[in-house]
Design goal:
The protein is mostly beta strands and about 325 residues long. About 5% of the residues lie in helices and about 45% in strands. The longest helix has 14 residues.
C-alpha cells in the first residue's frame, strides 16, 4: 500500500466517525388521533425524542433561530439552559429569576416563561424577583444583567410572572399566578395583590389589568391576527383554556375554549399550562396527560400522551419541530 492510499483510508474512517452523524435519542409517548385533520399536522407514528434530561422542573422553551439553539428554564435551580444539536444541553444563564444576595426561600425562584421582544432581546418571567425583565446582554454573550420592564401594579408587588407574549406593536401581555411565592397560594404573607391577574404593559410603561377572574392564569398566546387571546388556567378544579376578544386595552367576550375536566379524571399529572399557536391557528397546549392539539375553534384534533407532566412548548421558526418541557425532560417532536 502506498502512502497516498493509506491517507485516503484513514480520512474515510475518520469521516465515518465524525460528529456529522445524527445523534440517537431515547423516545417516549404516543400520538393519538381524534380527527382526520391531524394527518396534515403530525404523523401518528412519530415518537417524541428525549433530547435533554435531569432537571427539577423544565419550563419556558424558546427556539433562537439565529443561534440554532433552544433555551429553557429549570425553575427550581434558578437556571436557564441552552441546547444545541452539536453540544447538547449546557448552562446558559444563572441566576435567571432570583438575583437577591440572600438564599431564596421560594421553591421556584428561577425564570419561567421566555420570549423575544420586537427588538430581538431575551425577556424573562422572573419568579424570585417577581418581575418581567429584559436581559441586558446579547444572546451569544449572556449575562445576569437585567432591565425591569414591570414588577408592580398600582404600587404593589406582582405575585410571580409566569408566561408572556408580545403583540406586533411591541406591547407586553403576561400572567401573574402565585406559584413563585413561598407557599404558592393566596394566603402567602408576601402576596400583595389579592387577585391573580392577566396584564398588559403599554409601550409607555402603563400597566393595565385585563382579567382578574381566572383563578390560576398561566400560558397565553394570540391566535393569528391578534384579535383573540387564549389563556390557560392551571387550577386543578378548573383545568380550562379560555378565549377572549382583544380590543385596544381590553379583553371582552371571554368564553371557554376547551375544558380538560374529563381528562383530569383519568390523567392526574399535569394541568393546562404553557402553549404555542402556529401560523395556521393550530394550538399545541400542555395539559393533563401530555400535549393537546386543537384547531382555532377549540376542537381536539390529537393528543401526545406522555408519562410525566408537561409545562410548556415551543415551535421552531419553520414550524416543523415542536419542543416540549416535560418535567425532568426536554422533548423534540417532528411535525409536518
Amino acid at each position: 500500500m502506498n502512502k497516498l492510499s493509506f491517507i485516503v483510508i484513514v480520512f474515510t474512517l475518520l469521516s465515518c466517525n465524525s460528529n456529522t452523524k445524527p445523534a440517537m435519542y431515547k423516545t417516549t409517548g404516543t400520538i393519538i388521533q381524534y380527527d382526520e385533520a391531524l394527518s396534515a399536522i403530525i404523523d401518528t407514528t412519530t415518537k417524541p425524542e428525549i433530547i435533554a434530561e435531569g432537571y427539577e422542573w423544565s419550563e419556558g422553551p424558546l427556539w433562537i433561530e439565529k443561534h440554532n439553539m433552544l433555551l429553557f428554564s429549570d425553575v427550581p435551580t434558578n437556571t436557564i439552559y441552552k441546547w444545541t444539536a452539536a453540544n447538547g444541553a449546557e448552562v446558559y444563564l444563572k441566576p435567571s429569576g432570583y438575583t437577591g444576595t440572600t438564599p431564596s426561600k421560594c421553591k421556584e425562584p428561577g425564570s419561567n416563561g421566555l420570549t423575544i421582544d420586537t427588538d430581538g432581546h431575551l425577556v424573562l418571567c422572573q419568579h424570585g424577583d417577581r418581575a418581567v425583565s429584559l436581559m441586558d446582554a446579547p444572546f451569544d454573550k449572556p449575562a445576569a444583567k437585567f432591565i425591569t420592564l414591570v414588577n408592580k401594579y398600582e404600587g404593589k408587588k406582582l405575585n410571580s410572572p409566569n408566561d408572556l407574549v408580545f403583540n406586533a406593536a411591541g406591547e407586553l401581555f403576561f400572567t401573574d399566578p402565585p406559584y413563585g411565592l413561598f407557599t404558592q397560594d393566596d394566603s402567602d404573607s408576601a402576596k400583595e395583590i389579592k387577585h391573580n391577574g392577566v396584564y398588559k404593559v403599554k409601550k409607555d410603561g402603563t400597566v393595565i389589568l385585563l382579567v382578574d377572574s381566572i383563578t390560576r392564569p398561566n400560558g397565553l398566546a394570540f391566535l393569528p391576527g391578534e384579535k383573540q387571546l387564549i389563556i390557560a388556567c392551571s387550577d386543578p378544579d378548573k383545568p380550562n383554556w379560555y378565549i377572549f376578544d382583544v380590543s385596544d386595552d381590553t379583553l371582552s367576550n371571554g368564553k371557554l375554549f376547551y375544558s380538560a375536566t374529563e381528562e383530569r379524571k383519568t390523567m392526574k399529572h399535569g394541568l393546562p399550562d404553557g402553549f404555542k399557536i402556529n401560523k395556521q391557528g393550530i394550538v399545541f397546549a400542555t395539559g393533563p396527560g401530555g400535549v393537546y392539539i386543537f384547531n382555532s375553534s377549540g376542537k381536539k384534533l390529537g393528543f401526545m400522551k406522555l408519562d410525566d407532566a408537561t409545562s410548556n412548548c415551543a415551535l421552531s421558526t419553520d414550524e416543523k419541530t415542536l419542543y416540549v418541557t416535560n418535567d425532568m425532560y426536554v422533548l423534540r417532536i417532528a411535525l409536518k
